[in-house]
Every structure is written in structure tokens, then in C-alpha cells.
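ARCHIVE CARD
SHELF: 3
SLOT: left
DATA:
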Amino acid sequence: MQLQQLILSILILFIGTSPYEDTITWNDTRKLSWEDFKADPNPNSEAVALTASGITFGYSLKTSGKRIVDYTTSVEAHFYPKKSWYLSEKANDHILAHEQLHFDITELYVRKFRQQLDRLVINQNIKTQMGQIHQAINEALDKTQKTYDEQTNHSINIEAQKYWHRYITEELKKLEKYKAP
């Protein structure tokens, strides 16, 4: 079971996407609906739903000769409809809110990523530094997603679910400065 959860978590974090794949970019005014979950349910899973979300990251460097003189980055939280699924006979608003919070947690780590990138000083090792931050953020995101599911028992523990909703909402507000424009 632990191996299955590990594989599932890795799938969620490191989903390979093509430029033509349908995605939903996180937005505080657009919440997920069950219509967004387009994959066929996994018949071997004990879960009622699966949210496939992840962080996309790109950067561009400006050079003068061989020296890096500036950089720009793009970091976004994405939901992958064709890799997300639910069991319609067991789905309800409570479970949808649990799945939305998985996506919100991804956005929280996008903001943490942007905050760390904002603190970087231009230097000749900036690509390595960005890669290290990217890896650390994905590891922290994975750990938080697992902790969220463990503590809420995948939404069954109502009090823990309420706590996590308040906590993530507060953390997103603290990093409002790093929300996408």
C-alpha cells in the first residue's frame, strides 16, 4: 500500500505534460467542479477521487557574452483534468472541497517557490540554484499533500479537514504578494 501511495504521489507531482494537454491554472475565483475530473476512475484504488496537480516551472536567462545578467521565471499551479478522476456514486461536495484543497496546497507551494526565486541574486550558478529550489519545493509539496491526507484520513476526519482549510487559507493570504497577477 505504501508503494502504491508513493507511486501515486510521484505521479501527481511529476506528471509529464505536453503543450497540448488540457490544464486548469489555479485561480482564486475558479473552483474545481466534478466536471473537471475527466479520467476514468481507478478500479484498484480505495479512493473516491484523485486530484492530479503539479507545479510547472520555466525560466529564461539574459546573457552578455558568457555572463548571466538577468533572468525571468514562470511558476504556476496546474490541475490535470485527464489525469483526475472520481467515483460519481460516492462523490459529494465535502469530497470535492477536499480535492480543491489539494489544488490549493499546490498553489501555496507555487507562492513559496516564487518567494524563494524572488530572493535570488543574479550569479553564474543561478540555473543550479533554481533547480535546487524547484526540487526542494516539490519534495515539500509532496510531504504536505501526504500529511494532509493522513491527518484528514482522506476527508473522513471532519475536524482535521476544517483545520486544514483554515490553515491553507491563512498561508495563502500570508503569501498574497506572490499570487500570479
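SLOT: right
DATA:
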Amino acid sequence: MDLSIVRASPQDFKTVACLVHALLQELSGGKATPIGELEETAQVVLSKHGVFALLAVSEGQPLGVVVLNECAAIYAGGEFGEITELYVRPEARSLGVAARLVEAAIVEATRHGWHRIEVGAPPQPEWARTMQFYLRNGFEEVGPRLRRRL
């Protein structure tokens, strides 16, 4: 498969929103935020400093996306990256697309001077395959993340 990884521009917000919508549909059992709202949010988020998306494209078609955010924490030794979304279309899974996206994210992280990338742990055992993917790609399990909506 001819696959290229390209950095999304803010003008790619509809493509990124479409892929994130598919991710959220899968994670929520079909109860994702409406695509129009995600497009508005993607347009704003992709124009912010410290946020960027990488698209996996084959024959002009987007197959996947990874979105990275710059964070900072004392425990992390300063700035680091966080994968906030990673999605590959079902028909392209098991073809190495997600691994290529993670590799490209690592290159970008290194370019930014980050010394680590983190990702929230998916609920187990439901998403065991996702957890195993991250572990195979060099991530270490350090526990889940909690949230409080404001």
C-alpha cells in the first residue's frame, strides 16, 4: 500500500473532524458529538499553537489521524506530547497504518524537543487490542486517567 503521513493544516479541519467523529462513534457506541460541532472545534483546535494532527493518506484518501498536544509537567521534566486522538479506518487496520502514525508522532515529538509522549489508557478489557497496540509500540502502562467535566 502506498501510504504517506502528512501534517494536517488548519484547512484540513473537516477531514480531521470526520476521522475523530468515526473514532468517537466507535468509542461511544454511536453516540458521538454531531459532526458539525466537531468540525467547529477542529477548526479552532488545529489553529492553536502546540496542537497538530498527522494524516495517513493512501491514493488521496485519508485512512487515519493522530492528534498531538503539547503539555508541560514537572514530573515529565517539562514539555511533552499527548496523543489525544488516534484513529484508523476499519478497512485499513492491521496494515501498519497506526504504527506509521505513531512513528511520525515520535519524529514530531523529537523535533519539538519533547522527551515523552503520553496517551490515555482505554477502558479494559473492552479495548484490550488497543492497549496491546500501544504496548507493542513502546508505551508503558502507568495507569488510567480520570476526568472531571466543568
